[in-house]
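Internal ticket #5521
Category: modeling
Description: The requester needs a full-assembly model to guide mutagenesis choices. All entity lines are attached below as received. Residue total reported by intake: 96.
Assigned to: D.W.
Attached entities:
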Amino acid sequence: MIIAIDEELCTGCGRCINSCPTSALEMKDEKAHLRDERLCDGFGSCIAVCPFNALYIEEREAEPFDWSVLSEIDFEKFIDKLTLHYKPVPLKESKE
Ligand code: SF4
């Protein structure tokens, strides 16, 4: 199971690229593109942010997610994205 992009639907808005904590996606010819399948953790944050339903999961032979590739390529960017986009949501205070 791995992410796939429907290029007919992709407008190149870039939301998915910004949302992917592992930087598995990049822009190529004004379309989202899977940069390295070993960087796709299958978490699906890109699917959630695409307003055009251009992303989906497909079942095919793929390289498994590999932390070592992430740390070789851009571990610093991964940490930056986590701290920027994935802040815990504070619990609502009880009104008792
Ligand atoms: S969020 Fe959707 S439309 Fe925007 S670049 Fe990604 S796949 Fe394309």
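Resolution: model delivered.
Comment from assignee: The chain has one domain: 2-85.
Ticket closed.
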